[in-house]
């Protein structure tokens, strides 16, 4: 039996995100239609969008010189120079941001960007001190939870909860509770937020950016679902970049997770750090996503397909999933659904749930319905005894419509029974 280093102990053993991706990959690979996979962050297969990727793939394949370079050449560790330039020009054109290729870097998906970035900015320092990443609002993306390599990475703040009507709610940032001192290395949030579907407002984001600048720390905003692509955001909100901010984007939620392509926009210094970490950890990135998407970035099609096809698909789907859930749950169940503002999920809060959300997950799994227990998303909080942590479920609505409907029926039946037995 081998022993593991600190790094190994943290990364080589079981993790929430590891279990989630294993369950997701196995279910998709099994093709078992009896299982209702409402668990992962898998994008939907939207026929019109899938056809577009196929066409781009074929156009590439029909060009032997492109194929030789895309499949046969390593690219520089920061990403293809032409692609980085195209990305910078897109954001300059759309939003007037003063950025160039030197402010853009490619990573193996957004996940890798966070792994490298958060570990580089926070954790253990050579002088023996430790610094943390402030999560201004939780629940927050499960994929951040386990990526610390040296010491615990997060300090999280409880959200404010606004109850709306009988069955709806919304989170907001509790600015009075945000404390930033020397031990905070960065502020980080996803927008739209996985899992809650919350979109932090422009005013909240502005406030965070000011706090970050006053304290000379970066504000990292994860746009995996955000604008301008894939644009799965249902509220009015404006993308913002300042030199103190780090923005991450990804091709995954457009429907290309297999290409493993993440995009970071940041200061030139930060971009050089990431490129260097890419070189050391993986030499170079996958070329395929960049090659497929570049003409669509140059033409602006990446934005039109996001706004005209991808966003409407998920917005409609979110509304349907919401209506089916409301229809299936007994009105006497004290449920609340987070206002659906973006991303791929409904976030269900069952106040006073008689068992924990983790136990509810197990019961649903036995009935062939995979969701994610909400407790995974509340990492970094000082206290473990806040009931809300164990009262929520994340329900992904990207699977086929009939599987989603069936899954929601079973889920609601289990919940109705639990509350009826009280
Ligand atoms: N950030 C958020 C909020 C996500 O939901 C995901 C994936 O689910 C990622 C980042 C990472 O995705 P990828 O590494 O495929 O770009």
Automatic annotation (TrEMBL):
Entry GO CC: cytosol
Cofactor(s), by name: pyridoxal 5'-phosphate
Assigned keywords, A-Z: Aminotransferase, Pyridoxal phosphate, Pyruvate, Transferase
Aminotransferase class I/classII large domain residues: 68-408
Database matches in Pfam families: Aminotran_1_2 (PF00155)
EC number, as in UniProt: 2.6.1.66
A Gene Ontology molecular function term of the record: valine-pyruvate transaminase activity
GO terms for biological process, alphabetical: alpha-amino acid metabolic process
Domain of life: Bacteria
Flavoprotein found in the keyword field: no
Gene3D superfamilies attached to this UniProt entry: Type I PLP-dependent aspartate aminotransferase-like (Major domain)
Record has Hydrolase as a keyword: no
Name of protein: Valine--pyruvate aminotransferase
Gene name of this polypeptide: avtA
């Amino acid at each position: 039996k081998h022993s593991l280093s600190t790094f190994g102990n943290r990364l080589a053993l079981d993790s929430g995100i590891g279990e989630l991706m294993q369950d997701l990959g196995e279910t998709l690979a099994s093709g078992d239609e009896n299982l209702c996979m409402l668990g992962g962050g898998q994008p939907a297969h939207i026929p019109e969008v899938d056809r577009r990727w196929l066409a781009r793939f074929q156009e590439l394949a029909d060009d032997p010189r492109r194929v030789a370079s895309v499949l046969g050449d390593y690219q520089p560790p920061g990403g293809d120079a032409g692609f980085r330039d195209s990305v910078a020009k897109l954001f300059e054109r759309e939003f007037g941001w003063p950025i160039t290729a030197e402010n853009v870097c490619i990573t193996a998906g957004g996940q890798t960007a966070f792994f490298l970035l958060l570990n580089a900015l926070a954790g253990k320092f050579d002088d023996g001190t430790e610094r943390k990443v402030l999560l201004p609002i939780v629940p927050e993306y499960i994929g951040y939870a386990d990526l610390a390599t040296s010491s615990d990475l997060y300090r999280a703040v409880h959200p404010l909860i606004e109850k709306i009507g009988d069955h709806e709610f919304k989170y907001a940032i509790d600015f009075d509770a945000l404390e930033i001192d020397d031990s905070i290395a960065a502020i980080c949030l996803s927008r739209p937020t996985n899992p809650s579907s919350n979109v932090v407002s422009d005013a909240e984001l502005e406030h965070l950016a000011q706090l970050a600048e006053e304290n000379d720390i970066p504000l990292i905003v994860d746009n995996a679902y955000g604008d301008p692509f894939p644009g799965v955001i249902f509220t009015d909100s404006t993308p913002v970049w300042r030199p103190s901010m780090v923005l991450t984007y990804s091709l995954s939620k457009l429907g290309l997770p297999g290409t493993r392509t993440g995009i970071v926009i940041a200061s030139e210094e930060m971009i050089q750090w990431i490129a260097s970490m890419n070189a050391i950890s993986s030499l170079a990135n996958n070329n395929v996503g960049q090659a497929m998407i570049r003409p669509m970035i140059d033409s602006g099609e990446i934005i039109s397909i996001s706004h005209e096809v991808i966003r409407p698909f998920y917005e409609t789907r979110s509304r349907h999933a919401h209506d089916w859930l409301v229809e299936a749950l007994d009105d006497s169940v004290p449920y609340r659904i987070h206002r659906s503002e973006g991303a791929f999920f409904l976030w269900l809060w069952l106040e006073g749930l008689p068992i924990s959300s983790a136990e509810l997950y197990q019961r649903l799994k036995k009935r062939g319905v995979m969701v994610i227990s909400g407790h995974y998303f509340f990492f970094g909080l000082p206290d473990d005894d806040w009931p809300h942590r164990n009262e929520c479920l994340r329900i992904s609505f990207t699977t086929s419509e009939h599987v989603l409907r069936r899954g929601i029926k079973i889920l609601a039946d289990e919940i109705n029974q639990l509350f009826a037995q009280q």
